[in-house]
Amino acid sequence: MPKPSHGRGHDTRYVRLQKNYCFACGKNNADGMRLKFAYDEERDCFLCRFRLRKRFTGPPGHAHGGIIATILDEAMGKLNRLREVVALTSQITVDYLRPVPLNWPLRVESREISVRGRRHIHRAEILNDKNEVLASSRGTFIAIDPHRMFSRFVKRG
Length: 157
Fold this sequence. Notes:
The protein is mostly beta strands. It has 2 helices and 6 strands; from the N terminus they run ββαββββα. The chain has a single domain (about 40-155), classed as Hotdog Thioesterase (Thiol Ester Dehydrase, Chain A, Roll), CATH 3.10.129. It has helices spanning about 65-80, 145-150, and strands at about 40, 45-50, 85-95, 105-115, 120-130, 135-145.
């Protein structure tokens, strides 16, 4: 397997966007989550440690389900770096196993399941500091030609 690229936000070797405004990981999005992922070679997964603040409230004291899905989707999306492709989410399923608390240390981990042609299948889990799985997901990502799909957003020159 090719060595993954390490960095923050989306890998822009393939598409040079003006700035990264991704809600989940974009450093240029003042209203975003600014999640920072790293590849753990020993465990063969992408990993992000985080705490969810009050602005991500769903049920009292706990995270909104859409935020949970966002974190899982972002974690799975990072796996596409392993294959050096830009792939977009085609489908995601989320199992909400336990309420995800606000203001507690959490982590999300993602792993590749399979790759067949342009179709990349991944999984991710949000865990608490006791290693209890709070939410899990499975996602299908389809590799695309970023230059063709995002040509109007590509930085010229």
